[in-house]
Each structure stands twice: as C-alpha cells, then as structure tokens.
C-alpha cells in the first residue's frame, strides 16, 4: 500500500477537529454531498449550497435554499441529486426525530428559487429526455411502504404523474441510476426476491423494459457499461452473489453469462462501475477486501485491507481514473483510501496517525455454536490491559434481515475502550456477514440458530479470559432485541446488564397484526403465524415477550420512541410490564435479601426509529452500565466531553 499525501489536513485531523469543537450531531459523516459539473453541492449550516470544486473547503459558496423555509425542527439534508444540465437540484430533507422527508426542487439561476416540493419521498433520480427536458423520477412513501413511482417536469411544461404502482404489499420500490447514467433502474424487492425494470436515460417517456420477471428467492441488481448489463445476482448454485453480464438488448435471465464468482463466506458490500474496471467491496471471513476487475482483459486484483478496518464508507465519485472510499471501525474515525487505476495501486492518506492504533488491539476469533458452526467475533480492548477477566465487557449483536452488525465509528465506544472496557461484536446467523446463506440459516424456522450463536459467543469470550458474567453487558437495537430478549429468558446468568434501543420484543403479536405497516414485508424474515401453525409454534419458542417467566433477570435499560412506526411502543410497554411482574413474583419466592434487577423504560418523544446521535440516550445508557457494574464513571464522562456538549 502506498501513502497518499494531501493538500490540506488529512482526514483524521479534520474529523478530530470536528469532534473536539462541535456537537456530535454535526461531526457525523453523512454522504449528503455530490459533485457535478465542476461544483460541489452540500449542506452548510441550515442551507443547501454549492461552491466550485476547488473552493469546497472555503467560505466561498452560493446559497441555493434555506432549509428553515420548511419550518422543520433541526432539518438536515439526507440526499442530493443534480439534474444533468444543472438547471435544477433536488434535495431530500429530514429531521432527527422523524422518518418523514420532503424533497425540494430548486431552479438554478442568478437567483435560485424553490420550484417544487414533494412530501414523503424515498428515492429520486434525474434523467433528460430527447428534447433536453429534465425529468425527475421519485418514489412516494406511505406508512413506511414505497409502492408508487412518479415522474415530474418543471418550468413551462410542468407536470407530475404517477408512473408505476406495485400491487404486492410485501414488495417495495426504489430507484437507482446506473453509474454511466444510461439507464434508470426501477428495483422492486422484498427480503428475498427482486425484479428490475430499465427506464431509458435518453428516452424516459418510452415504456420501461423488464429485465427478468421476479422469481421467488432470486435477487439481482443491475449496472451498465458499453451496451452491456452487469448483474449481481444469487441465481444458480451456490445461492450466493455472483457477477453476470449480458447484452443490454437481450436482458432476460437465459442470456446471463457468468463473469465472476465470490469465495465461500463472502459478503458483497457494494459494487462500483468504471469505464474499464469493476470494483467489488467485499467482506470475506470477517476481513475487508477490494477486488478490482479489469473489464478489457478480465484480470482480477484482490487487495486485503488493513485488519483494523471493519466497514466501508462509499464516496460519491465522478472521477473515472480513481476509486476513493473510506474505512472505519467502531473506535476509529474514517480514513480515506484511493485506488488509482493507472498505477494499479491503493493509496492511503498520510498525516497524523490516530493514536488508537497503538493504544488498542483488534482481535478476530470464532465461537463454536452447538451445531458445530463457527461464528466470527470482532473484539477491541486496550493494549496495556492486564487481567482481562476482571474488565467490563460490552457485547453487540443484531442477527436479522441479512444485515451486518453496525460497526461504524462511535465516539462513545472509543471512550469505553479508553476506560478499560472490552467490546465484542458477535456476527451471528441471521445477519449477512458471511453471505446470503448466513442470513438464510438464521431466519424463519432457523431463528434459534442466532440465539445459540450468541450464547456460544459469550461463553467463548468468558472461556478465553475476556471478562466474566458479573461484568458482562449486552446491547442491541431494533430486531437485535429479539436475540437479546431471548437470551435474557434462556440464559440470564451470562449477563449483568442490558441496554436496548427501539427493540423488537413481541414477535408473535406483531406478526399477527396485518394492520401494522411492515408486517407483510416482514413475513420472509419471521414467518406467517396467522396462517402457518408451524411458524406460530416456532415463534413461540423464542419470542421474548412470550417466554418471560419468574426468574432472575439482568438489569435492563430500554430506550423507546413515542411515535415509532417500525417497532410500536405498545409492544415494548407490554414487555416491560410483564417483565416487572415476573421479577416481583420471583422476588416473593426468593425471600428477603434478594437484589431485584433494575428495569428502566425511557420513552423519548419523536417518530424516528433509532436516533443514533442522541446525547441524552448515550449518556443515559453509559450511566446505567457504570452504575449496574459498580464502576467509577468520572473519567468516562470527562472523556465524553470531548465529543458531546452537555
């Protein structure tokens, strides 16, 4: 790997400066920035602005739209798209406490003006028609479901019409513009099946072309280059993602030719297409790789990335000569890397090295689950820690939807490691860390595999000298709450304390309520207990709410959101009340002297599902963990002040 000098401050210095001088909400890196035609479009304060590319780091910018006009509470820009000839720019705007969004369209002129606004937009892209008119395609979200696609034009020929409606309530629609802008793809998906239609980027009023009708269990995504479609799909054996290609004018599945296969236990994180190269971002056996495929000669270069790295952050990139990206970990801010095609080398930013690289260790070990399956874990701790068995341990788990456990940089996690904690990330079945089969082996009537994996991970950690049950804590959010709640019922002696955020705890009753917005979309993950007795009985075996019983439990801190549409508050409240009743009953049976666990339900206002950067939530959770373990929190809160403004 070659070091790449920077003209300005290196990435770590930029991030560190922001961490030390701004509230945490403002440092978090959000990719709401886009380069187009020599300009950079981004958010500055409460405004959508643009500046010339070479002046992007200066105060010399043009204000295009003031977000305060929308009269929202602390709005931020979630996504930006610029029309091909830069007559218009569209931006999706949200707030921290709601999933609702507004898409504003601004006409670019000497005096920029808002041309239109559309509520509840999810994905959106621009194309240009035969008469050089800009056309905006967007999906409309209702009750968390995206079923409708619209197309709109502006100016003298103003129109807004519905283009497509998906009839199957278990599917949703999102839009993606191929890297070369030749086609707009309309992707219709559920958790296991997809169907893609091509909208001609030069003739968007023509009827769309179906690539391949949906086939149950077949997923595919499409890119385009030189009149060929590159298709990332799980069709065929093994049922993991592989890269195929076909001529754009013969897109059906019988014409797909195998182009590149992945190694076993590989997760495809992303794909980026260039003029002469295709770049695959991969996770193989819990390590990160970049594969650069030469499209002229079908050559493949596989680059193993630094072992500290746990996740990619993709950069929006229009430079055909370079492929930039960032690497991150839970305890280290993102660092920039660039693969330069001409040199055939990966360049790393130089500058001040983050001191965490010398003061901490990252380990990758495996636990053997009860069926013999090896479950990967990623562990962080201080290099100078002595007697790790006496150190506090915070275990992370998710294990659902084929999604990886989130391992982006979180300053509060770094502070814990600096204070002597061990962090362990358990990549259990049901997640996606080892590919599609890893997910399949932890969903529907295999969901208990994830629970067995989590139990094996914690026992392996203790067995290898990482902490002990009295100092072990467990954390999860959303669907990760299923495994955590199940473990609290089945093996509470492994844990001292638990923190949960917007947790899914009442699987059975939620999945039997078809009036909830996501129930039909979730059937592929949890099963259909309303019509399938086998699914119903299986869910009863692990559902946290259904299996509460009078016994000793770890202390539990739950953060819930008042108007959360994804995990209704009612189920969390019912779980908490039933759990408290079981604890009271157990205390009566145990007699005097029993130290009952603390069960705290912290209900926050707002309608967002998870508010990752909430100061109040972060401080409340850390305070809870330190109090439950009887630890002195003075130094950790002093260190947190570097990142949070109290």
TrEMBL record:
Compartments where found: Cytoplasm, Cytosol
UniProt entry tagged with the keyword Disulfide bond: no
Keywords for this protein: Cytoplasm, Hydrolase, Protease, Serine protease
Listed InterPro entries: AB_hydrolase_fold (IPR029058), Pept_S9A_N (IPR023302), Peptidase_S9_cat (IPR001375), Peptidase_S9A (IPR002470), Serine_Peptidase_S9A (IPR051543)
Segments forming domain Peptidase S9 prolyl oligopeptidase catalytic: 409-623
Keyword Cytoplasm: yes
Record GO biological process: proteolysis
Gene Ontology molecular function, alphabetical: serine-type endopeptidase activity
Domain Peptidase S9A N-terminal residue range list: 27-345
Main location: cytoplasm
GO cellular component: cytoskeleton; cytosol; Golgi apparatus
Pfam family, one: Peptidase_S9_N
EC number: 3.4.21.-
Sequence similarity: Belongs to the peptidase S9A family.
Known role: Serine peptidase whose precise substrate specificity remains unclear. Does not cleave peptides after a arginine or lysine residue. Regulates trans-Golgi network morphology and sorting by regulating the membrane binding of the AP-1 complex. May play a role in the regulation of synaptic vesicle exocytosis.
Assembly: Homodimer. Interacts with the AP-1 complex.
Protein name: Prolyl endopeptidase
Annotated source species: Physeter macrocephalus
């Amino acid at each position: 790997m070659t070091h790449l000098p920077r003209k300005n401050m290196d990435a770590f210095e930029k991030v560190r400066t922001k961490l030390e001088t701004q509230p945490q909400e403002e440092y978090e890196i959000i990719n709401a920035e886009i380069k187009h035609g020599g300009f950079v479009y981004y958010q500055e304060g409460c405004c959508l602005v643009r500046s010339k590319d070479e002046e992007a780091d200066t105060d010399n910018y043009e204000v295009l739209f003031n977000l305060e006009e929308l009269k929202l509470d602390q709005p931020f820009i979630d996504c930006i798209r610029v029309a091909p000839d830069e007559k218009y720019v569209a931006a999706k705007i949200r707030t921290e406490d709601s999933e609702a969004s507004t898409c504003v369209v601004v006409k670019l002129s000497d005096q920029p003006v808002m041309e239109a606004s559309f509520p509840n937009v999810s994905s959106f892209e621009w194309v240009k028609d035969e008469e050089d008119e800009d056309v905006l395609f967007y999906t409309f979200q209702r009750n968390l479901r995206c079923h409708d696609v619209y197309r709109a034009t502006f100016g003298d020929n103003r129109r807004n019409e519905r283009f497509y409606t998906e009839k199957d309530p278990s599917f949703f629609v999102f839009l993606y513009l191929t890297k070369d802008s030749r086609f707009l793809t309309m992707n219709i998906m559920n958790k296991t099946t997809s169907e893609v239609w091509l909208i001609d980027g030069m003739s968007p009023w023509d009827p769309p072309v179906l690539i391949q009708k949906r086939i149950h269990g077949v997923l595919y995504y499409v890119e385009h280059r030189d009149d060929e479609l590159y298709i990332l799909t799980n069709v065929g054996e093994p049922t993991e993602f592989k890269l195929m290609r076909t001529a754009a004018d013969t897109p059906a599945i019988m014409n797909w030719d195998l182009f590149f296969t992945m190694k076993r236990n590989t997760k495809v994180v992303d794909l980026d297409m260039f003029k002469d190269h295709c770049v695959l971002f991969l996770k193989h056996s819990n390590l990160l790789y970049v594969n650069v495929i030469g499209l002229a000669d079908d050559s493949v270069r596989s680059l193993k990335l630094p072992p500290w790295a746990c996740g990619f952050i993709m950069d929006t990139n229009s430079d055909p000569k370079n492929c930039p990206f960032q690497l991150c970990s839970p305890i280290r801010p993102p660092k920039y890397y660039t693969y330069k095609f001409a040199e055939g080398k990966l360049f790393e930013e130089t500058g001040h090295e983050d001191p965490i690289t010398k003061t901490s260790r990252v380990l990758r070990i495996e636990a053997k689950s009860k069926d013999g399956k090896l479950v990967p874990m990623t562990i962080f701790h201080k290099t100078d820690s002595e007697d790790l068995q006496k150190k506090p341990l915070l275990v992370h788990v998710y294990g659902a939807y084929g999604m990886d456990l989130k391992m982006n940089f979180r300053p509060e996690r770094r502070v814990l490691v600096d204070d002597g904690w061990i962090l362990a990330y358990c990549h259990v079945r049901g997640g996606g860390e080892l590919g599609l089969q890893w997910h399949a082996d932890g969903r529907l009537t295999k969901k208990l595999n994830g629970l067995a994996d989590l139990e094996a991970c914690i026992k392996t950690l203790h067995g290898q000298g990482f902490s002990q049950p009295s100092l072990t804590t467990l954390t999860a959010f959303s669907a990760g709450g299923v495994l955590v709640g199940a473990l609290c019922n089945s093996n509470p002696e492994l844990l001292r304390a638990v923190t949960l955020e917007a947790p899914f705890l009442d699987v059975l009753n939620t999945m039997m309520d078809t009036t909830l917005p996501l129930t039909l979309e979730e059937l592929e993950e949890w099963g259909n207990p309303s019509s399938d007795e086998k699914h119903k009985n299986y869910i009863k075996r692990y559902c946290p709410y259904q299996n509460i019983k009078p016994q000793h439990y770890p202390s539990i801190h739950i953060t819930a959101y008042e108007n959360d549409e994804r995990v209704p508050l009612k189920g969390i409240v019912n779980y908490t009340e039933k759990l408290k009743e079981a604890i009271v009953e157990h205390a009566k049976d145990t007699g005097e002297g029993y130290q009952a666990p603390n069960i705290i339900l912290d209900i926050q206002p707002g309608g967002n599902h998870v508010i990752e950067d909430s100061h109040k939530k972060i401080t409340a959770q850390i305070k809870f963990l330190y109090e439950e373990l009887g630890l002195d929190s003075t130094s950790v809160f002093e260190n947190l002040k570097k990142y949070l403004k109290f």
